[in-house]
Amino acid sequence: MTKSLSFVRTQMLPQQAPPVTERGAVKWLRENLFSGWFNSLLTVLGALAVVWLLQATLPWLLNGVWTANSLGECRSIIAASAGEGAVGACWAMIRERWHQFLFGFYPIEAYWRPVLAFGLLFVALAPVLYFGLRRTNMLMIGITGALTVLALLGVHTDSAHVLLVAVILLALLGVAAVAPTKLLWFTLIYPAVAFYLLWGGSVWGPVGVLLGLAIMAAIWWLLQARLGVVVATSVGFVAACVWWLALQSYLTTPLANAMPLGLSAVNSDKFGGFLLSFVIGIAAISASLPLGILLALGRRSDMLLVKSLSVGFIEFVRGVPLITMLFTASLLLQYFLPPRTNIDLILRVIILVTLFASAYIAEVIRGGLAALPRGQYEAADALGLDYWQAQRLIIMPQALKISIPGIVSSFIGLFKDTTLVALVGLADPLQGITKIVRADINWKGIYWEPFIFVGAIFFLVCFGMSRYSMYLERKLKTDHR
Amino acid sequence: MTLATEPPKDSFRLSMLIYDTRYRAITIQVIVLALFLAGVAWLTNNTIQNLAAKGKDINFGFLLNRAGYDIDQQLIPYTNDSTHGRALVIGLLNTLIVAFFGCIFATLIGVFAGVLRLSKNWLVGRLMTVYVEVFRNVPLLLWIVLAFVIFSETMPEPKDFKVTQEMIDTGTSPAAQKIFFDSVAITARGTNIPMPMLTRPFGGFQLAGVNVSFSVLATLAVIAGSLWVNRRIRRHAKAVQEATGERPTTWWKTLAVLILPTAALLVAMGLHWDIPGFATTETGVSKGFNLVGGLNVAHSFTALLIALSVYHGTYIAEAVRSGIMAISRGQSEAAFALGLRPGRTMNLIILPQALRVIIPPLISQYLNLTKNTTLGMAISYLDLKGTLGGITLNQTGRELECMLLMMLIYLVLSLTISAGMNIFNNAMKLKER
To answer: What pTM, to 2 d.p., does this model score?
Structure first.
């Protein structure tokens, strides 16, 4: 007997489309913009704010003038094209003065030197960021090289120098292709290379300084197995100091006389604009990180004296504004150094900014060290590693990874703070150069355009750095949360 | 028989100073101490030699000499006949006042932006993200200088506010208008705001060259009294709630206690506002060359305050956002399960916990803001850096003394703020047992 239940459906019905309020743009709008009366009110207010902003800025941006010789000319062009009373940006000022914003008063025919130094910075960074990865290193150097050559053509470099730069970069690309780990040697000599490119002068000065470092490395290599890292480093450092202060000139002066190789010297007062910001920022950033690590270790040390000195230094520096440090560099350092020492103002500023930043970095790294579980230290001890081995192999890789966001935000802060050097008389892009431009009779009364231009460059660099740190944080995340 | 565990009695060898962990710490510390002392001695020796070469000494006596320069913004009386020491105090007060208002405004902006950035509203969230990213990725100095330039170069001259006979005849209005119900005039020379005045003040006395007004003291005393009474009312309400389960209505009592006594005192003293404006003839024609009355706030102060508030507001917004995000969803779900309304969930569950996460970064922002007031130097705001570290330093040529004194003052200021905020932090901290 078969019994069929007629009311039981034997086939599936085709799926119906969701209601119109539950799908697509309508759903999104309902959920994100109009989910309640308060939310709708916020949306309307937000939309009004956007409209008001666009109304205020769009005509100004769209009426922008790129070719004119003065603000008055700009205004007459805008009045002619967009009608009387129209507002518009006068980007012609940027077009005329961009090189001053970027390079300050650096000699125009030598623009290739800072450009090359900036390009080589990324070549030097490549092995640090991607140690031993052939493809990535080659890609980074290749892109940097292409951009550098383009930039060189952009600043009207003569073809001989473009060729020279291309050859140098191709050689480095070759090194990356053959032995990517060897690129680290270039990173080591990069500071001397950059200094030589930027300031010029005889080639033998930087060579002498590098020789001092080589002496230090050699002594460290010979002694560290027998006497330990700290003693070997100290002896090497003392030897290098003796070389730099007492012996170096006996070698380099005759060499400079015999073979006067070198670039034309550029005085420090020619530095300005973003060149100055980058020189101070990059030098201080790269020097403050190792110093900050040492200070953080000192602050966590068991040795009372080391600890209290570190704490005293960190708390003092963090308690005073950066400006007082800069004024110390410009006014007080002459009292603290031996009579008749004459250190360049930029160098003095770099030293003080480095000290300033290292205190902040130290606190960030201390946070990373504190976040590390006690078991990691104990495991390192159980493996029989000594203090420096444990730091290098176990503690620091983890602590630094934890502190990446803090370190990068310190770097961003430091880079933004390089504008303060204007207050001790250096020509930073913001106060120094903008003031000069605004004092020009042709551009008197201009204010939005220079600030927007300078602000946009700062924004790109800082925003880029913060996004890169977020990417790095995600990439290095090894826990499973 | 001797015990095998007896440690071998080894004699002290010199190499143990480096290799033996028991002695190594002492060796290193002795070396560090020697290096440190040598460094200090070297610096001191250099300083003495340099000072001797320039024929200078270290002497703080200059603080008692006549300063001879004017300061626009002075919270306590000061003339150019006053001493450098008094100029220092004026500068310190200017630093403190801009830092104080800056902290308040930055907190308001930061909390507002931080909460709105977390809002479910897509548009508002994006707007706040743009605000935070744009303002924190551009140097503070740019905002300070830009604000100052906009104020001092685009605002109308005082003469544009004048009403002439011709304007009255033709029915036109002057080129520039006061804003906020005709009470605030922003000119190229400064912002003129209304100032509270008393017709029947209680008098006052002089203390160390500072006018102490009894009216202000009385007002403060009345406000403090109201707060104390209000606290008693709330405590009583809480006691009743715990005894009976019913909380008596207190809002009208609170309102009355907080507002009425102060209002009565102010009316008794005859409070009125001195509104800036031109002196006028009977027909309404303006006389004179400048706005009179009210309080003239220099643009350097306004620009510095605005820039500091919006710049540090972004950092506070991020602190607030991360603080609220740090509270797990389970907390608000538990509160909803207990039947708490969203508002009370925020007040009783989320905020007290989020505050603990927010306060430490907030402290460091307040410290940064206070230190960043020194950037007012770029727009000639005469704070401590401007008086002691600026004009006084240049006039007396005593770099060493001025800089050391200034660093010391900033250090004390920073340590005081962080100590005070740490006390607050400890009071708010989770009391664990």
So the answer is: 0.86
